[in-house]
């Protein structure tokens, strides 16, 4: 009966508001009926949850015992209907009136907007240690401990929100002392009670303009700090992001207020949709890393790259794009270097012909992503394809240049290999000559001075150290092995005396067994001895 009366009243009021320019219609009404009954008696009215009577009116019924239970119920309903939350400040030091030298700790419960607990909700710790519930868990309060104010600037915290507070028990002595303490210009830091670990200061009470606010302090990384480097992302340390180009990209695609919204909607061009389409065109091909692109590192390609992303091109824009393409062709004909990134590569990097092939491929990819925008975009793509297809004589010239470069590289490599091979062969030849000299010395000691001595082996004249030097010594650098071998040979040549026959020989030829001919008067050939 009461709900029907309220609904009829709302309907009549809305009818009057329609015909008046000073009244407003009632859009939403919540009817809450509280039935109280004396302490010690049973209730005759049962609770009824929220029920929708009409799109404008909702109704709910609560049955509460009189006394302190009514105050608790009103506290819970206030929090539900006004989107509030409860915080209890514990361990507030307060001097006793009867004992001035002693103090006791009191608790004060505060009501504030529920957003002050948003940090707890984000971290998933909506019920931190010390939180309590009232009335069989109908509503909870978050407990924060009184903390001594900090004056060190290093320990100051960033504030992310401030919300007005109201004590639940306004007339109590602890609430009055706390409000007077704060209104006198003092501040109180509040920490989360924890069983272990360091304390976390999450809130602060302070007054501004005669009103007390609960300030939310950021416990995690502050939003006002410098953002972390993008090179520290999940993809590893990447240091060559196109940061400057991305800044220009953001300036070109920022949202701005648009005055004539109705006219644009009639024309079918909502500013937000136009901005989305422009963003889509600009991001069809946009490499994020410098080493992944060539054309965006070239100043000569900037006119084409800035025009090709437009929704429509003019004839002047097409001519500008064609001039840019012809300039690239002229650069290729002159064999100008390109800004190819060599990060992470070894050697000289790709050859000049390969660099231009990469550049033309990327340019074609950029233009091809926009060829469907208009007929003039297609003309720009046709120009790129025509300039890429070189005439046969140009291709032959490129092939000859590549073959010449390959021959030069191969010649340099073979020259280094042949030089090292010659040095190795020369050192082996010197070692063999030294071995032969040692063998000849050993055999010369065994040979006896008698007619029955065996015929000595043919000896080769000892080569001077200068004679065994490589003929190519003056033509190029000498390897370390050759230098060391020459030094050893020079030292060994000074350790023994030269043979008397070789010293007295003529043209490095000495006649053997001359004493036989002098004593016997016979030719040494008759005894089978050879004469040299």
Question: Would you kindly provide a written description of the structure presented here, covering whatever features stand out?
Answer:
- Pfam families: Mat89Bb.
- This is Protein asunder-like.
- Keywords: Cell cycle, Cell division, Cytoplasm, Mitosis, Nucleus.
- It contains 15 helices and 12 strands.
- With 532 residues, it is of the alpha+beta class.
- It folds into 4 domains: 66 residues, no CATH class; 137 residues, Ku70, Chain: A, Domain 2 (Beta Barrel); 120 residues, no CATH class; 100 residues, no CATH class.
- A hairpin with a 4-residue loop joins strand 2 and strand 3.
Relative helix content:
40-55%
Alpha plus pi helix count? 15
- As a percent range, the share of strand residues is 15-25%
Shape: elongated
How is the biggest beta sheet arranged? 9 strands, mixed
Average pLDDT taken over every residue = 77
GO biological process, one term: centrosome localization
Family: Belongs to the Integrator subunit 13 family.
InterPro entries: Cell_cycle_regulator_Mat89Bb
Region (Disordered): 391-471
């Amino acid at each position: 009966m009461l709900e029907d009366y309220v609904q009829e009243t709302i309907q009549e009021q809305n009818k009057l508001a329609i015909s008046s320019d000073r009244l407003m219609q009632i859009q939403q009404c919540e009817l809450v009926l509280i039935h109280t009954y004396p302490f010690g008696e049973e209730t005759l009215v049962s609770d009824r949850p929220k029920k929708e009577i009409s799109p404008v009116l909702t109704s709910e019924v609560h049955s509460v015992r009189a006394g302190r239970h009514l105050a608790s119920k009103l506290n819970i309903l206030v929090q539900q209907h006004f989107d509030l939350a409860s915080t209890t400040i514990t361990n507030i030091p307060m001097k006793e009136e009867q004992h001035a030298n002693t103090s006791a700790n009191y608790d004060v419960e505060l009501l504030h907007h529920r957003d002050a607990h948003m940090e707890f909700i984000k971290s998933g710790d909506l019920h931190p240690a010390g939180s309590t519930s009232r009335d069989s868990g109908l509503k909870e309060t978050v407990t924060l401990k009184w903390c001594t104010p900090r004056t060190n600037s290093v320990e100051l915290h960033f504030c992310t929100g401030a919300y007005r507070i109201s004590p639940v028990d306004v007339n109590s002595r602890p609430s009055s002392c706390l409000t007077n303490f704060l209104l006198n210009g003092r501040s109180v830091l509040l920490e989360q009670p924890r069983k272990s670990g360091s304390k976390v200061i999450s809130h602060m009470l302070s007054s501004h303009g005669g009103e007390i606010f609960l300030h939310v302090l950021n416990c995690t990384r502050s939003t006002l700090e410098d953002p972390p480097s993008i090179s520290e992302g999940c993809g590893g340390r990447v240091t060559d992001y196109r940061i400057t180009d991305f800044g220009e990209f953001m300036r070109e695609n920022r949202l701005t207020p648009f005055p004539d919204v109705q006219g644009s909607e009639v024309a079918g061009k909502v500013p937000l949709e136009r901005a989305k389409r422009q963003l889509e065109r600009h991001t069809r091909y946009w490499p994020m890393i410098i080493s992944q692109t060539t054309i965006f590192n070239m100043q000569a390609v900037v006119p084409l790259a800035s025009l090709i992303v437009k929704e429509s091109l003019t004839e002047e824009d097409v001519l500008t794009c064609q001039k840019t393409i012809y300039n690239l062709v002229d650069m290729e004909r002159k064999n100008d270097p390109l800004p190819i990134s060599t990060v992470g590569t070894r050697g000289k990097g790709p050859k000049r012909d390969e660099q231009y092939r990469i550049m033309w491929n990327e340019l074609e990819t950029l233009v091809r992503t926009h060829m469907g925008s208009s007929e003039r975009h297609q003309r720009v793509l046709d120009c790129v394809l025509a300039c890429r297809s070189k005439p046969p004589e140009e291709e032959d010239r490129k092939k000859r240049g590549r073959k010449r470069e390959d021959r030069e590289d191969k010649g340099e490599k073979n020259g280094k290999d042949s030089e090292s091979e010659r040095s190795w062969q020369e050192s082996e030849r010197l070692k063999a000559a030294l071995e032969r000299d040692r063998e000849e010395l050993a055999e010369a000691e065994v040979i006896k001075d008698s007619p029955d001595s065996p015929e000595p082996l043919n000896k080769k004249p000892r080569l001077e150290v200068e004679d065994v030097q490589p003929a190519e010594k003056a033509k190029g650098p000498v390897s370390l092995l050759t230098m060391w071998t020459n030094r050893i040979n020079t030292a060994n040549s000074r350790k023994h005396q030269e043979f008397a026959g070789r010293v007295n020989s003529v043209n490095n030829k000495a006649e053997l067994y001359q004493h036989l001919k002098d004593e016997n008067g016979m030719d040494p050939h008759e005894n089978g001895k050879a004469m040299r």
